[in-house]
Amino acid sequence: MRSDAHRPSSQRFIPVAPKLEPALFTQAATLIAPIAADAPEFHGPSIDEFFPETLFQIGALEINRIHLIQFLATAAIVLIFWLGTRRMTVVPGRFQSLVEMGLDFVRVNIGEDLLGKKDAQRFLPILTTMFFMILFMNITGIIPFLNIAGTSIVAVPLTLAIISYVTFIYAGIKKSPKNFFKNSLFPSGVPWPIYIIVTPIELISTFIIRPVTLTLRLLMNMMVGHLLLVLFFAATQFFVVQLGGWWTVLGAGTLAFGFVFTLFEILVAVLQAYVFALLTAVYIQLAVAEEH
């Protein structure tokens, strides 16, 4: 046999180093896996928070956490107004004065300013109910242990928008049974050919868009506000409690943002109650206007 020294260079055996890459990757993954498993994870807010689990069931009605918050807000409204008006005196006390200030705010700034005294008196109960119901259910979003607005699920904003819509149509028909829809869809002073464009726009904007915008405006504001607050305070807990060390500095920053947005959320809660009741009064005022 010929030795390797006498073989052509192309036929000589050249030892090849074993491939270590798979082994190295396997060892690295083995070392990193326990660290990755023990590393804290940040869990941000989820849309699932607006679909909580059922706590108990009454017949076909499923009661969850948000429903309980709605019941609590409603009970708080009834209790406050009952305590504030059960023994009314000519010279009111502090609590009675506070309740009267709230009622006067709705009566003057929402009712009489837009509808006048006569029509404001007619529709004041529904405007007052809307304002305080939305306010109390909005404010639960910043109350500890509740932490979510009762208006952050579509049922409440949609119900109130339908009531506003029905009240608007009722006021218009009551004022002018024959001409309400005619004047709404065919405004005076418009040339007849232009009605081909104007009438569909009026139909959509007046009778379709209004309840939709009322619903979405309130719902989206409350949902976004809740998600932002959960994001900031969850981040604070993550940086301070789970990571610690110099991450605490970031935790202090997210805590400050959370506090600022809590104050902002109080403003939004009041503003959304005011806007909803105000727009309802505006729609009623348009319905009872003289041209109808």
UniProtKB/TrEMBL annotation:
It comes from the Bacteria. The chain crosses the membrane at residues 66-84, 123-146, 153-173, 193-212, 224-249, 255-284. Keywords: ATP synthesis, Cell membrane, CF(0), Hydrogen ion transport, Ion transport, Membrane, Transmembrane, Transmembrane helix, Transport. Gene3D superfamilies: ATP synthase, F0 complex, subunit A. InterPro entries: ATP_synth_F0_asu, ATP_synth_F0_asu_bact/mt, F0_ATP_A_sf. The keyword Transcription regulation does not apply. It is a multi-pass membrane protein. Coiled coil: none annotated. GO terms for molecular function: proton-transporting ATP synthase activity, rotational mechanism. It is found in: Cell membrane; Membrane. Its main location: membrane. One of its GO terms (cellular component) is plasma membrane. Key component of the proton channel; it plays a direct role in the translocation of protons across the membrane. NCBIfam families: ATP_synt_6_or_A (TIGR01131). Belongs to the ATPase A chain family. This is ATP synthase subunit a. The lineage of its organism: Bacteria, Bacillati, Actinomycetota, Actinomycetes, Micrococcales. The gene is atpB.
